[in-house]
Amino acid sequence: MPYLELQHLHKEFGDFTAIQEIDVALEPGEFLSLLGPSGCGKTTALRIVAGFERPTSGRIVVEGKDLTHVAPNHRDMGMVFQAYSLFPNMNAQDNVEFGLRVRRKPPGERKRKVAELIELVGLSAAAKRYPHQLSGGMQQRVALARALAIEPRVLLLDEPLSALDALVRVQLREEIRRLQTQLAITTLYVTHDQEEALSISDRVAVLNQGSIEQIGVPAEIYNEPNTPFVAEFIGTMNRLEATVTDGGEVDFHGTRLRVDNARRHQSGERVLVLVRPETLAVEQSGNGGGLGGEVVAHIFLGATTRVKIDAAGQELSADIPSTRAASLPVGARVSATFPAESARVLALEEKPASPATAPADR
Predict the structure, then answer these.
(1) 331, 295 in Cβ contact below 8 A?
(2) What's the CA dihedral at 130, 135, 136, 142 to 10 degrees?
(3) Cβ(186)–Cβ(153) under 8 Å?
(4) Closest-CA residue to 345 (of 268, 263, 253)
(5) Start-to-end C-alpha separation, the chain
(6) List of residues 6+ apart from 256 with CB closer than 8 A
(7) pLDDT band at 359 (very low <50, low <70, confident <90, very high)
(8) Which of 22, 146, 142 minimizes the C-alpha distance to 77?
(9) Is the dihedral of CA 275, 192, 179, 151 positive or negative?
């Protein structure tokens, strides 16, 4: 039996539909991220799980018990917010202890638990400091320890790292995953950062306009997107509109390209061929077939350089080792190829419109 279930969740704010027919089931100890752009409904779904919002329809079930109409303070869930939400008049230690005091835990148990958690999040030296004396990363560690102090059945995190610097975000997301794994706590995590979601989650649910477009393990979401939206939202993707021909090939402006799963589509069908930049091999023209074009720009990314290529009016991105970039200067005629098994072919459809503006960033 799943540990946490979001069953047929639907939520409306007046005329605006925030989420529709969301179904998600988490196993005990699983870390699942709700990933999507602003306004897609991920925070609304999390607030419904926490009890801060009531669904228009649907249920929240934990260990087989329906909690849909149970008050937030009776759900035994720990919540970590984007804005930390620490009590400014309490030091770090007292903030962590707050939930235990509310639950009238004995002083000895409170002291032991707080000391254990403060050490667990690496803040023993800062236990007596107040929030204004702590960095953003340290404040979020306190907020995490406070959420864990009550030993919640479910841990909920709402964009907990978005206000932090890039380096601190990476360090703290690894720390969150370490703690979650160590404590084996079922966790629902909301983020708009696809790298963040892919790096720490057991599974990822990609939301768009209030619905789940795809749910799966990170490698599946990245390598096998089911829709154009997922393909574009997760990482960088080259999109080639082509026509299926015979023998597992597609035709792109007169160039025949072999793509393994093109056979799933009918000859003559218009399709979208999706190719990741890292799978494109680029050579000077004359060294092979493939997509012919001209280098129009270089974007230095450190160990790799993203080469922009104009191929029949279509801009392609190819990631190559930076040590090779000088051999493919702007203006050079090149050909780009990719392994037949690395591309994804989807039925061509109109590009999804931007999500409607919600009353808030939901």
Answers:
(1) yes
(2) -50
(3) yes
(4) 263
(5) 29
(6) 245, 249, 250
(7) very low
(8) 146
(9) negative
Q: φ, ψ for residue 301 (rounded to 5)?
A: -120, 20
CA distance 98 to 147: 10
Which residue carries 């780009």 as its tokens? 336
Q: Among all chains, which residue has been given the structure tokens 């079930």?
A: 61
Please give the structure tokens belonging to residue 154.
Answer: 């479910």
Amino acid at 91: N
Contact 34, 190 (CB under 8 A): yes
Contacts of 289 (CB under 8 A, 6+ apart): 255, 335, 337
Rounded Cα gap, residues 258 and 262, in angstroms? 8
CA atoms within 13 A on the CB side of 344: 20
Write the CATH number of the domain with boundaries 4-230.
Answer: 3.40.50.300
Burial state string for 283-319 with b = 16 or more CB within 10 A and e = fewer than 16: eeeeeeebbbbebeebeeeeebbbbbbebeeeebbbb
Other CB atoms within 10 A of residue 23 CB = 13
How buried is 43 (Cβ within 10 angstroms: 0-12 exposed, 13-18 middle, 19+ buried)? buried
Q: In the block, which residue shows the tokens 């290529």?
A: 309
Query: Looking at 285-359, which runs of residues are DSSP E strands?
Result: 291-300, 304-311, 314-321, 333-337, 344-347
CATH 2.40.50.100 fits 236-347, yes or no: yes
What confidence tens digit (pLDDT) does each residue in 13-61 have?
A: 999 999 999 999 999 999 999 999 999 999 999 999 999 999 999 999 9
Q: What is the pTM of this model?
A: 0.86
Name the nearest CA neighbour of 330 among 305, 312, 303, 313: 305
Q: Work out whether the CA dihedral 227, 233, 237, 239 comes out positive or negative.
A: positive
Question: Quick check: 140 pLDDT over 70?
Answer: yes
